[in-house]
Amino acid sequence: MCISSLVHAQSEMYEICPIKNSEEIPSAILYQQDGIEIDLKDYIGDRKAVLVFYRGGWCPYCMRHLSALQEAKDEIEALDYEIIAITPDDFMRLDTSIKKGKEIDYKLFSDKDINAISAFGIGWKINDELYAKYKDKYNMDVEWWSGSKHHVLPVPAVFVVSEGKINYQHVDPKYSKRLSTNVLLSFLKSSND
Fold first, then answer.
1. Is residue 5 pLDDT above 60, yes or no?
2. What's the rounded Cα separation, in Å, for the pair 126 and 118?
3. 173 and which of 5, 39, 93, 117 could share a cystine (Cβ 3.0–4.6 Å)?
């Protein structure tokens, strides 16, 4: 089932079609902070992971969410899950997320070519009007952050993965709504029983 939603403060509709529970995670090339390419599917393998897609280091809602995950990191790792955060920001900008997110020390990957965002079905394109508003009113240039002109952002999402498959997902087109760490931890604990 796909999700249609209004872009905040715009009348344009967009549709996302997230990957479903029980589907295999797709192969997608991402970049580490040093610019080295990795394939997400190969990187995760059969391990357990919490994949977090966020809009970028410029987004205060994203930074609060990443910080909350940092605070819950020990509990998440005690359940044998690794946190992996993915953004369309260029790999050279990942340090901004680390600093703004209260010294995040879990894995951050750049999806500047929107490979994973597309493969997971959560990307939407910013129209010219919204791009200009972000740039002029909020001094936020998605082209500068991503190093690309694709103008695609992910709908903020969390996917829980084990044995190479999606076990749980939280995808909400309202960019201010994020999965709470309490709900995430409840699911992780119940799936370990």
1. no
2. 14
3. 5
CA distance 170 to 159: 7
Q: 12-16, 32-36, 83-87, 176-180: which range is least confident on average? A: 12-16
The helix/strand count (H/E) of the chain reads as: 8, 11
Residue predicted with more confidence, 10 or 130: 130
**Is 83 contained in some domain?**
yes
Residue 3 lies in a domain: no
Specify the pairing of strand 48-53 against strand 37-39: unpaired
The answer to whether residue 11 sits within a structural domain is no
**Higher per-residue confidence, 176 vs 116:** 116
CB neighbour class for 2 (10 Å; exposed up to 12, middle 13-18, buried from 19): exposed
User: Does position 61 have pLDDT exceeding 50, yes or no?
Assistant: yes
The whole-model pTM stands at 0.90
Torsion 180-151-51-92 (CA) sign: negative
164, 44 Cβ separation under 8 angstroms: yes
